[in-house]
Amino acid sequence: MRIEKVAILEEVVARVKDSDYCFMVNHGGVTVAQFAKLRKDLRALDSRLLVVKNSFLAKVAKEKGWSEEVNAMLVGGTAVVTGHGEPTAVAKAIMEFVKNSGGKASVKGADYDGKIVDAAMVEALSKVPGKNELRATLLMLLKEPATRLARVLSEKAKKEPAAEAPAAEAAPAEAPAAEAAPAEAPAAE
Length: 189
Known about the structure:
Blueprint: H1 3-18, E1 21-26, H2 32-44, E2 47-52, H3 54-64, H4 69-73, E3 78-83, H5 87-100, E4 106-112, E5 115-118, H6 119-127, H7 131-187
Antiparallel strand pairs: 1-3, 1-4, 2-3, 4-5
Helix pairs in contact: 1-3, 2-5, 5-6
């Protein structure tokens, strides 16, 4: 193998090993503009797209210990998406790219969470809410009981002042009796 090919292979292996995930996409017939938009979208998600020869990817698969299922995916033009962070957002960007390609691009599969998954699993992953969406939902669920309690107490407080007003008027009538009590206390000594 030529020195240039060895360097490219080493870069591909290093990139795939270093990443949290590796999506494989069939890119045959996609325009340069569509590819450029996908690359821009992926950069915002701390991911990179790299067009790879299938023979290089087969060597990466062997080195990473991927199952034999990968060999069936290595047909046609292949691009890999690698990176760090949240894979659901990356899967959404890839599925949007596939949808906008007019049937030219497709997902082959992915190395996700140490397992090789097929295109259907990548599509399912793209429909899962992201970490930020899940955090917002959880925060809303945790905040909801406190909000309801505050609302109930507020409503109760609005209704009770009318009921407390007669009790407040009765309290001053009892006040002189309370004053008389301290006068009796020294006499008890």
